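Interim report to the steering committee. The following record documents the input for Acetyltransferase (170 residues).
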Amino acid sequence: MMDVRPERAGDEAGIRAVHLAAFPSALEADLVDRLRDAGRAAVSLVAETDTGIVGHVLFSPVTIAGDGVPGKGLGLAPLAVSPGLAGRGIGSALARRGIAACRDAGFAFAVVLGAPEYYARFGFEKASLYGLGNEYAADEAFLVIELAQGALERARGVIIYSPEFGVFTT
């Protein structure tokens, strides 16, 4: 049995272990630590089984540089699942519960830089359709989901991630 719940004190080592196992380097694990330390882990959920933490998703604040700023937005990054458990719906459960938590917390939209075919199942669409770009110059893989009705009607500009993401732009 698996439980998806908010991150709590004492989860840090388990979360870090999942990211270290899921990604080829420590960049994502370090990013999670930096975002948490900076107070920018707006929504942070873990998937837990009787063996411990097996998945994690983090949403952190983003801003729009441009006109028509639609309100508070978040970036989904990173999302990780223990490699031996991939394909069992853990990542999907984390994404769905995370999106719901973001909506419940009053956020207007969320963005993700990821596989369009994966994130479309949760309601993400190509962000450029809404006049949104990103500092990584990604197009097809840069996606957005509206969390508050009408939030993206006037959205135009470039999404800027928190400074902790700077390691990915160098």
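The first helix runs from residue 12 to 22. The committee is asked to note this result when reviewing the revised timeline.
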